[in-house]
């Protein structure tokens, strides 16, 4: 593999100084939760290891993952990864188009067989033989299977690839299917979010390069270092939650005071992501800090959990739409009315029996 | 079928007339003495079963009230700065504490099913393959539907009650314990003992918002069971042929008549 450049060489070619490179290494170590002793290790890996080829394929998606990715907080991360990707195959970022682009994909698969990482943005629709998403004249699901066959590992970028996102929301007419249900024989790293945070995306790739292995994953296949805690666990408004101080209306005094958005349907308590620590746009803010509840975009089926602004999920069964409480109260009312009627009937029946008994005697 | 009008009671003709003191003070009339001859009692619920019943009832009450409030919190209160105020925290604490008590009590109750008397085991299985049991269940349902003139006598739970308790308490509480501890594991954090024991439930549900909804529906199922259970116990205490409410206090089942069936 001598012909493949290292990351460091790519960076230097892009005009990045060694000083900036070292800064990138220390920031990445910090983002991954590693100690200062790991900075030279990262630098060493970047300098010596041949860069990992990445094939980036796009299925049913909105490109928000790519958009997030190229806005990495540290400009170098963007440069590294952009140069890395544009060299291989990526619909939205590469210069080539048409047959040339498809030829590049075949070249990469052939050249780096078993060594490249397949990054999937979006998911394949399986209905109508996959005809809802065509890439280069063929269903996307075929391209995905073909590219995954010789991949070292698969990264499922975003909620689409990880869980299905909006195109898989009920009733899912195209049968959009997350990657792990199509590719079952490769290690898959889910990096959910709509989109995932840029630093999380570059962090995952850098980790894989530095340590030459997949990051530690949780039960759902997400990197533990970014998805092991809920938004709620590290939310700066958490003290207001424990105190019982909630925003009651969007324009009330409590909203101005920055109270907890739990009652406004914030999904922070059920969402695993790094937003409340890493934040967005170079650490500027994140939804809750901007006064809007979390919508739970990095969770499985987040489009089907009722309204974004409701605490309790609406349950759609038998054609009615109600929360657990509405269903419970209706059932309690029915049971209460039933009991009342039963008491009346019991009293009548026993009065009737007494009368009969006394007549018999 | 057995003759349901025949009596179990065999009088002891040599016995003297009982309750001399009560008779002489006027507290016991001849018909009271006659009623006394027919009375019979069986010791059904041992102390641990009775204690568990009431601890469980109290814990479930706390869990339902606090659980509802966790889903729909009370209005915002501003007693003090958020650092010094813990209103919602205390509601959640009460929920978790009651859940711990309920779970430990349930485990103790399962243990007692092994070492206690045969009635202590009734809660944990239903004789699914026994046709007669299903027939008796239908009979009891017909009694509730006013289609039978008079209920039968039972020592333990009647088949209908047995069925309801198995599904709502044994299975229902198990469901609530598993989903509840999975939700608790979220706060306790990955790698915690709760996560190691119950974290897999989160994996089954995928999104924990879904798990919250299921747990919430389970709460309503148990609340409805409690309402029906209390009504049925009071009604049976009045209208059936055996004691109900005193039985879960003293453990003794008494009968109001001495007929065979």
Automatic annotation (TrEMBL), chain A:
According to the entry, every stretch annotated as the Cytochrome-c3 hydrogenase C-terminal domain falls at 227-306
**Which EC numbers characterise this protein's activity in its record?**
1.12.99.6
Which superkingdom?
Bacteria
Q: What general EC class does the enzyme of this chain belong to?
A: oxidoreductase
- The NADH:ubiquinone oxidoreductase-like 20kDa subunit domain covers 62-207
Q: Entry's InterPro entries?
A: Cytochrome-c3_hydrogenase_C, NADH_UbQ_OxRdtase-like_20kDa, NiFe-Hase_small_C_sf, NiFe_Hase_small_N_sf, NiFe_hydrogenase_ssu, TAT_signal, TAT_signal_bac_arc
Q: Catalysed reaction per UniProt?
A: H2 + A = AH2
Arranged from A to Z, the UniProt key words for this protein are: 3Fe-4S, 4Fe-4S, Cell membrane, Iron, Iron-sulfur, Membrane, Metal-binding, Oxidoreductase, Signal
Q: Where is this gene product found?
A: Cell membrane
Key word Hydrolase present in the record?
A: no
Pfam families per the record? NiFe_hyd_SSU_C, Oxidored_q6
Which prosthetic group or cofactor does it need?
Answer: [4Fe-4S] cluster; [3Fe-4S] cluster
Q: Which PANTHER family match?
A: HYDROGENASE-1 SMALL CHAIN, NIFE / NIFESE HYDROGENASE SMALL SUBUNIT FAMILY MEMBER
Family designation: Belongs to the [NiFe]/[NiFeSe] hydrogenase small subunit family.
| Assembly, per entry | Heterodimer of a large and a small subunit.
Annotated protein name in UniProt: hydrogenase (acceptor)
Question: Which organism does this sequence originate in?
Answer: Rhodovulum iodosum
Automatic annotation (TrEMBL), chain B:
What are the transmembrane regions? 51-70, 90-112, 160-185, 217-234
What UniProt keywords apply to this chain's record, in alphabetical order?
Cell membrane, Electron transport, Heme, Iron, Membrane, Metal-binding, Transmembrane, Transmembrane helix, Transport
List the InterPro entries hit by this protein, alphabetically. Cyt_b561_bac/Ni-Hgenase, Di-haem_cyt_TM, Hydrogenase_cytochrome, Ni-dep_Hydgase_cyt-B
- Give the top-rank taxon of the lineage listed in the UniProt record for this protein: Bacteria
Q: Kindly list the places in or outside the cell where this protein is found, as annotated in its UniProt entry.
A: Cell membrane
Q: Does the keyword Electron transport apply?
A: yes
**Keyword Cell membrane part of the UniProt annotation:** yes
What is the protein's membrane topology class? Answer: Multi-pass membrane protein
Entry-linked Pfam families: Ni_hydr_CYTB (PF01292)
Query: Which residues does the UniProt record annotate as the domain Cytochrome b561 bacterial/Ni-hydrogenase?
Result: 44-249
PANTHER family of this UniProt entry?
NI/FE-HYDROGENASE 1 B-TYPE CYTOCHROME SUBUNIT, NI_FE-HYDROGENASE 1 B-TYPE CYTOCHROME SUBUNIT-RELATED
What the record says about family reads: Belongs to the HupC/HyaC/HydC family.
UniProt protein name? Ni/Fe-hydrogenase 1 B-type cytochrome subunit
């Amino acid at each position: 593999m001598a012909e493949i450049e290292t990351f460091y060489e790519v960076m230097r070619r892009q005009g990045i100084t060694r000083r900036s490179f070292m800064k990138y290494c220390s920031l990445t170590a910090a983002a991954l939760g590693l100690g200062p002793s790991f900075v030279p290790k990262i630098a060493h890996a970047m300098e010596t290891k041949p860069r990992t080829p990445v094939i980036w394929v796009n299925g049913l998606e909105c490109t928000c993952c790519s958009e997030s990715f190229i806005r990495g907080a540290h400009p170098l991360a963007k440069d590294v990864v952009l140069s890395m990707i544009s060299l291989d195959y990526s619909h939205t970022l590469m210069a080539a188009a048409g047959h040339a682009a498809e030829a590049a994909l075949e070249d990469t698969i052939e050249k780096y067989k078993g060594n490249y990482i397949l990054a999937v943005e979006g998911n394949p629709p399986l209905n109508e033989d996959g005809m809802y998403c065509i890439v280069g004249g063929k269903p996307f699901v075929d391209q995905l299977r073909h590219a995954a066959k010789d991949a070292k590992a698969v990264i499922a970028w975003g909620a689409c690839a990880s869980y299905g996102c909006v195109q898989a929301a009920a009733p899912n007419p195209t049968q959009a299917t997350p990657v792990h249900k199509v590719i079952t024989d490769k290690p898959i790293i889910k990096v959910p979010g709509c989109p995932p945070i840029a630093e999380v995306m570059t962090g995952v790739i850098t980790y894989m390069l530095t340590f030459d292995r997949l990051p530690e994953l949780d039960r759902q296949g997400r990197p533990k270092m970014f998805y092991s805690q809920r938004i709620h666990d590290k939310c700066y408004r958490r003290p207001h939650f424990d105190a019982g101080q909630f925003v009651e209306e969007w324009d009330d005094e409590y909203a101005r005071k920055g109270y907890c958005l739990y009652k406004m349907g914030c999904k922070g308590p059920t969402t695993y992501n790094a937003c409340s620590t890493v934040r967005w746009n170079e650490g500027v803010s994140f939804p809750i800090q901007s006064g809007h509840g979390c919508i739970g975009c990095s969770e499985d089926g987040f489009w089907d959990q009722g309204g974004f602004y409701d605490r309790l999920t609406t349950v759609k069964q038998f054609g009615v739409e109600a929360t657990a409480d509405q269903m419970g109260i209706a059932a309690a009312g029915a049971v209460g009315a039933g009991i009342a009627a039963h008491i009346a009937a019991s009293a009548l029946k026993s009065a009737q029996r007494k009368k009969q008994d006394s007549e018999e005697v | 079928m057995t003759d349901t009008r025949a009596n179990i009671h065999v009088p002891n003709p040599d016995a003297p007339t009982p309750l001399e003191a009560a008779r002489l003070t006027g507290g016991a009339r001849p018909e009271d003495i006659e009623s006394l001859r027919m009375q019979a009692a069986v010791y059904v619920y041992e102390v641990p079963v009775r204690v568990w019943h009431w601890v469980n009832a109290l814990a479930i009450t706390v869990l339902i009230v606090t659980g509802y409030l966790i889903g729909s919190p009370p209005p915002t209160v501003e007693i003090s700065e958020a650092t010094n105020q813990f209103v919602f925290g205390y509601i959640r604490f009460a929920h978790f504490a009651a859940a711990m008590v309920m779970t430990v009590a349930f485990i103790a109750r399962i243990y007692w099913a092994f070492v206690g008397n045969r009635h202590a085991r009734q809660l944990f299985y239903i004789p699914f393959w026994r046709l007669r049991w299903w027939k008796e269940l239908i009979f009891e349902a017909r009694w509730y539907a006013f289609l039978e003139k008079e209920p039968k006598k039972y020592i333990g739970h009647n088949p209908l009650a047995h069925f309801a308790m198995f599904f709502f308490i044994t299975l229902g509480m198990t469901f609530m314990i598993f989903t509840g501890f999975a939700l608790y594991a979220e706060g306790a954090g990955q790698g915690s003992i709760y996560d190691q024991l119950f974290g897999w439930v989160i994996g089954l549900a995928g999104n924990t918002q879904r798990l919250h909804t299921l747990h919430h529906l389970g709460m309503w199922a148990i609340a409805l069971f409690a309402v029906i259970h209390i009504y049925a116990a009071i009604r049976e205490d009045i209208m059936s042929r055996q004691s109900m409410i005193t039985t879960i206090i003293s453990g003794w089942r008494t009968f109001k008549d001495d007929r065979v069936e």
